[in-house]
Amino acid sequence: MRMYDIIAKKRDGIELTTEEIQFFISGYTDGSIPDYQASALLMAIFLQKMNTRETVDLTYAMMNSGDTIDLSNINGIKVDKHSTGGVGDTTTLILGPLVASCGVPVAKMSGRGLGHTGGTLDKLESIDGFHIELTTEEFIENVNTHKIAVVGQTSNIAPADKKLYALRDVTATVDNISLIAASVMSKKLAAGSDAIVLDVKCGSGAFVKDINGAVELSTAMVNIGNGMKRNTIAIITDMEQPLGYAVGNALEVKEAIDTLNNIGPKDLTDLVVTLASNMVYLGEGASSVEEAKKLVLENLSNGKALTKFKEFIECQGGNVEVIDDISKLPDAKIIVQIKSPEDGYVKSIKSDDIGIAAMVLGAGRETKDDILDLGAGIMLKKKVGDKVTKGDVIAVLYANKEEKIEDSKRRLLNAYTFTSEFVESRKLILGLVKDDKVELF
């Protein structure tokens, strides 16, 4: 088998075989296929696309290019959630303990933030003492005992994806549904869960900017998951503005605590309830999504989810005192109010610009080696549809470096647009993809 022939075949729009895809992934991972040939095939795939079978085979080969995690020693059906990335996406911090409080095991591997989207591990490490490195035995014991554990991804999960993504990033081949879907699902499937709920973001703060692209990506990922015998659904959600009000590591932990106290932002709470209900149902913690939703809402209101969060923090070494005393979280020395430049209504907020404004303050990384300022970030005070008067505070910047303020302030103000006409609040849950069915709301 020759790489030249595989490139020519896909260039001409001919379907690749399972063996040809495996040959490519295996050879590129071990270094026997050079970058220039891999780049040529990626461009051919980008232009000619892949069908469902090819995409599933690509995902399978990438998944098996490194370690796969065996969670068979964990009791029950393990359900995972994956978000395609967003700004202010605090859901995992709330979802984990909430779903665990309903008796469904959550064995989660998470990553760190890069760019304008935050990472779950960084947020959890805002809590003093919390450690994300557990042995396999500790990880399994925590889930069996407490129904929840969150750890960092091992370095050898889907190594083919790491190499291919770096190459796609510099060869203008990122924006292809099959390549995106295989990248996401190879890592998620290698992590060993039995069922997966996907939160596919759609809008200015997401990779996919429109509903058609979100449906296409959701369908591809659901087909991959189901094709590999993992019960998979996708929920399409709005990311035309940040989720909740907090953008930044410690700030988002505070917002997660508020939400578990049942006093969090409505949009964040609504999304968490929707995702949790589907996770509990897939984990057979309830006989229907509707029954699961009742249990989820009950555990939010009766304090069981918050108690489970404390248990989770404590069993991974974190200081549980932060739950009742948020002053023990990292803070900022400089607090700057940003005021509305005009009267009217908030028409739109560019999520990615808000994320970058927070990153400038130190809440995110421009490169993987950047050191985070865990206390830095932004609290939004006005969102789409809110009425404002000139001089009203629309956001608050939290920083520890004075020289970062002006750049962040400029970016934040540029993210907001205003209008004199009434603006409807945005719809959050946009659609559901399950099996071969697409339902838009």
UniProtKB/TrEMBL annotation:
Swiss-Prot/TrEMBL catalytic activity: 2'-deoxyuridine + phosphate = 2-deoxy-alpha-D-ribose 1-phosphate + uracil; uridine + phosphate = alpha-D-ribose 1-phosphate + uracil; thymidine + phosphate = 2-deoxy-alpha-D-ribose 1-phosphate + thymine
SMART domains in UniProt: PYNP_C (SM00941)
GO CC annotations, alphabetized: cytosol
Domain Pyrimidine nucleoside phosphorylase C-terminal: 345-419
InterPro entries named in the record: 2-oxoA_DH_lipoyl-BS (IPR003016), Glycosyl_Trfase_fam3 (IPR000312), Glycosyl_Trfase_fam3_N_dom (IPR017459), Glycosyl_Trfase_fam3_N_dom_sf (IPR036320), Nuc_phospho_transferase (IPR035902), PYNP-like_C_sf (IPR036566), PYNP_C (IPR013102), Pyrmidine_PPas_bac/euk (IPR018090)
EC code(s) of this entry: 2.4.2.2
Biological processes annotated in GO: pyrimidine nucleobase metabolic process; pyrimidine nucleoside metabolic process
Keywords, comma-separated and alphabetical: Glycosyltransferase, Metal-binding, Transferase
UniProt-recorded Gene Ontology molecular function terms: 1,4-alpha-oligoglucan phosphorylase activity; metal ion binding; thymidine phosphorylase activity
Keyword Metal-binding in annotation: yes
Co-factor(s): K(+)
One Pfam family from the record: Glycos_trans_3N
Role according to the record: Catalyzes phosphorolysis of the pyrimidine nucleosides uridine, thymidine and 2'-deoxyuridine with the formation of the corresponding pyrimidine base and ribose-1-phosphate.
NCBIfam families, A to Z: PRK05820.1 (NF004490), PRK06078.1 (NF004747), Y_phosphoryl (TIGR02644)
Quaternary structure note: Homodimer.
Family label: Belongs to the thymidine/pyrimidine-nucleoside phosphorylase family.
Protein name per the record: Pyrimidine-nucleoside phosphorylase
Source organism: Helicovermis profundi
